Every structure is written in structure tokens, then in C-alpha cells.
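Justification of computing resources. Each target in the renewal requires a structure prediction run like the one illustrated here; the chain below, 182 residues long, is used simply to show the kind of job we budget for.
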Amino acid sequence: MTDTRKDAARNRARIVEAARELTDRGELLAFNAIARAADVGVGTVYRHFATVDGLEEAVVLRRFEELGDIFRNAGQDGLVQVLTAHFTLLTEDALFERVTARAVPALAETRAVRNDLLGQLEQLMNHAAAHGYLRADVNATTVLLLVCGLAHAARSAQVRADSPQGKALLGVILDGLRPVTT
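Resulting C-alpha cells:
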């Protein structure tokens, strides 16, 4: 790798870290503020990220990786475990929820990892449906929207995922995913 590429990689990492720190403090991601925090020019920020959406996705990429680890450790019968962990991640991180809920990701990397996770969720759901634990008329995208919406509502009401109220809210969603018996 040339020195220029190493320098560019360092700058990108500094930009993402500065954006993460600003987000953790509850500040909006504005390119000028990020450039100041990363000690780079605003043009450098624009060279790495064409949009704030792309930068936001780079900031929360680690959350997608955490979710991937949760899927890998859940096993075939881990749908409730995965949805509970996902709900928790989304309620803890408003930016992750906003990025997850986007119809179209800004970065190809985000699109790829999200599609992979949706595929894994669909597999878990198919397994649960085949064993009679899940309604057949819902898909992974529908469940993702439900969990994102619930997380947004819980965070807005300052309800923690691990609180009794948070558990009850998620329980309503999980109950609604079970097959209807007559």
C-alpha cells in the first residue's frame, strides 16, 4: 500500500471515529463539525463520504457486525433470542435504528451486510414457521420494520429494552408473530 493510501485509510478512520464520538454525545453529524473533530479538512470528509447517510452507515457498521455475531451464536431455534438482541441494539443506538430502517442504504457495504442479515433472519423465520412457531404470512422485512418501529417508540418514551415495560412491548410483537389458532 502506498503512503497516500495509508494516509487516506488513517483519515477515513479518524473521520469515522470523530463521527462516532459526536453521535455518542448526541450531536448531529455535520461535515464541518466532523472535519474539526477529526482534524482534517472538510474536503477530506467529502472525499470519503459523499453524504451524511454514508457516514452514518460507516459509524454503525460495528452494530451490524454485532448483530451478525448474534445470528451466528443463536442457532436454528434462536429467533426470539435474535429479535430480543436486535431490539436491544436498536433501542440503545438511535443511529443504528435509523440506518437499519432505511429503505435503501447509501453504501454498498451496508447493503451487502444488511441483505446477508435479512437472509439469515429469513432462514430463522422459515425454520420457526416449519415447526409451527411462526405465522406463515410474515417475512423478514416485515419483522425488521416491526422491531425498528418498536425500538423507535421505546426510545422516544425512554423505555429500556431490558425493563419490564420494554420486555412487555417486545412480548406483544413476539406474540403477534405466533400462528393464529382457531
